[in-house]
Amino acid sequence: xxxxxxxxxxxxxxxxxxxxxxxxxxxxxxxxxxxxxxxxxxxxxxxxxxxxxxxxxxxxxxxxxxxxxxxxxxxxxxxxxxxxxxxxxxxxxxxxxxxxxxxxxxxxxxxxxxxxxxxxxxxxxxxxxxxxxxxxxxxxxxxxxxxxxxxxxxxxxxxxxxxxxxxxxxxxxxxxxxxxxxxxxxxxxxxxxxxxxxxxxxxxxxxxxxxxxxxxxxxxxxxxxxxxxxxxxxxxxxxxxxxxxxxxxxxxxxxxxxxxxxxxxxxxxxxxxxxxxxxxxxxxxxxxxxxxxxxxxxxxxxxxxxxxxxxxxxxxxxxxxxxxxxxxxxxxxxxxxxxxxxxxxxxx
Length: 348
Known about the structure:
Blueprint: E1 2-6, E2 9-13, H1 35-42, E3 45-49, E4 57-58, E5 64-65, H2 67-80, E6 86-90, H3 93-101, E7 107-108, H4 116-121, E8 124-126, E9 131-133, E10 135-140, E11 155-159, H5 163-175, E12 180-184, H6 187-195, E13 201-205, H7 206-215, E14 223-225, E15 233-235, E16 238-240, H8 244-262, H9 279-284, H10 301-308, H11 312-319
Parallel strand pairs: 3-6, 3-7, 11-12, 11-13
Antiparallel strand pairs: 1-2, 4-5, 8-16, 9-15, 10-13, 10-14
C-alpha cells in the first residue's frame, strides 16, 4: 500500500488482494459507531474504490480522479466543508465489504453491484445507484465470436468474488455452455490475462470494458465488444449496516447531485438565484436555514457539493462522458425526463 500527500488531500492508493484460502467469511457484525462523528474526528472521508478507468485512478500529478472519487469528494464537501478532505484506498471487490465492517473505510465505491446477498448477508447496506450498467463480453477483433452462445467450452477471464463471475457460472450452467472461468484476483490481472490470450473472452461491466478498450490499448479497434447484455448491474456505494444516520447522509448527498441537475444548478449558477426560486432550489443553494438539520449538517451542505464538485451531469461528463477520454453515452444514467432511469426524490 502506498501513501501520497498533497494539496490538502490525504489519499492511500494500493491494493488489498484476496489471498487463496481466506474467502470464507467470518460472522461479521457491524460495529455500533457513529460514522459521521468518526469522520469528523478523523478529518477526512475514507473511500474504497477500484482502478477502473474513469471511475478511480490518478492523474499525472498523482491526484486521485474519477467518477467514484468525485462522489467521495461530494460527501467530504457536505460533511467536512472541504471536497479535498478524502482518503482514497484502492481495494478489490472481495475485500471492500470486510474493510467497511471493520471500520477501515467509511464508504465503499468501486463497481459494487446491488444484490440481495450483499444487502442482507454481509453486514453492509447498499445506499443508492450512482451508475446503471450491465455485464458485457469483449473479444479480440480477429475472433469469430458474435455472441455468448457461440462460446461453448471456451475460456473467459473474470475477476473472482464478483457478480460477473457468479453470473457467468449461472449462464454457463443454464445454457449448457461449459464455459471455463479463468479467475483473477484483480481487474488488472484479469485484463493482463486477456492480453496474454489466456482466455478467448473477458467479461465485466459494459462501462468497465469500454473504458479499458479506450485507455489500455493503442488501437481500440483490436478489441471488440459483443452486442449482448448479460445482466442488470446497479452500481453504487455501500456503507456498514447499523448506522442509519450515515446511510442517510450518503444517500442524500447522491440525491442532491441529481436534484441539482434537474434544476440546472451548478457552480456557475448557484449564486444567480432570484427570490422566485423554488423551495427545493433554495435548499440546494443553502438559503434554507434548517435544510441540513435532519442530517446533522449545516444549511450549506448541498451548496458545497454543487460548488466544489458539481451536479450529476458535471460528474458524469467530466469522468466518463464527452469531456473524458472514454466518451461514454449516458444511456440509462440520464434523468427520467431525458429518457433515463434516474428519478430523484424531493428535497423536502
